[in-house]
């Protein structure tokens, strides 16, 4: 077991994260503070902290091969903060985040059909008409 109470080989789902976040807030009597507005503002703050990590690095290659372990660990912590606030916000708003995300992928597939997309360097959404 890890500090999360989940074994290394156990899958982590959005539902598990939602449950853990709800328990965490309840144990600390924080539900009173977890309005959609407050959670959104906290999420934006965490996105800012995540942005600071990349702010002066320029473009970085996939996998972050030149990053130190400590830098990757810090990145993981900030990514986790963003994810956890997003999961909590969706829960408080009554949105099934997993289903909403899958629906959005489907809508994006319609909006950007693979047969009409031509990949260009630095142009991820070049649609050929």
UniProtKB/TrEMBL annotation:
<dbReference type="GO" id="GO:0000287">
    <property type="term" value="F:magnesium ion binding"/>
</dbReference>
<keyword id="KW-0963">Cytoplasm</keyword>
<dbReference type="GO" id="GO:0006253">
    <property type="term" value="P:dCTP catabolic process"/>
</dbReference>
<dbReference type="InterPro" id="IPR025984">
    <property type="entry name" value="DCTPP"/>
</dbReference>
<dbReference type="InterPro" id="IPR004518">
    <property type="entry name" value="MazG-like_dom"/>
</dbReference>
<dbReference type="GO" id="GO:0042262">
    <property type="term" value="P:DNA protection"/>
</dbReference>
<keyword id="KW-0460">Magnesium</keyword>
<dbReference type="GO" id="GO:0047840">
    <property type="term" value="F:dCTP diphosphatase activity"/>
</dbReference>
<keyword id="KW-0378">Hydrolase</keyword>
<dbReference type="GO" id="GO:0005829">
    <property type="term" value="C:cytosol"/>
</dbReference>
<keyword id="KW-0479">Metal-binding</keyword>
<protein>
    <recommendedName>
        <fullName>dCTP pyrophosphatase 1</fullName>
        <ecNumber>3.6.1.12</ecNumber>
    </recommendedName>
</protein>
<comment type="function">
    <text>Hydrolyzes deoxynucleoside triphosphates (dNTPs) to the corresponding nucleoside monophosphates. Has a strong preference for dCTP and its analogs including 5-iodo-dCTP and 5-methyl-dCTP for which it may even have a higher efficiency. May protect DNA or RNA against the incorporation of these genotoxic nucleotide analogs through their catabolism.</text>
</comment>
<comment type="subunit">
    <text>Homotetramer.</text>
</comment>
<feature type="domain" description="NTP pyrophosphohydrolase MazG-like">
    <location>
        <begin position="35"/>
        <end position="101"/>
    </location>
</feature>
<dbReference type="Pfam" id="PF03819">
    <property type="entry name" value="MazG"/>
</dbReference>
């Amino acid at each position: 077991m890890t500090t999360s109470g989940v074994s290394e080989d156990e899958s982590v789902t959005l539902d598990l994260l939602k449950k853990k976040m709800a328990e965490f807030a309840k144990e600390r009597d924080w539900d009173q503070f977890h309005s959609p507005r407050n959670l959104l503002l906290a999420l934006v703050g965490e996105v800012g902290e995540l942005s600071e990590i990349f702010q002066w690095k320029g473009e970085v290659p996939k996998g972050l091969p030149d990053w130190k372990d400590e830098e990757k660990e810090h990145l993981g912590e900030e990514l986790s903060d963003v994810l956890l606030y997003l999961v909590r916000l969706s829960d408080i708003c009554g949105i099934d985040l997993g289903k909403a995300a899958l629906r959005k992928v489907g809508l994006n597939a319609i909006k950007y059909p693979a047969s009409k997309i031509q990949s260009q360097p630095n142009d991820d959404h070049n649609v050929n008409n």
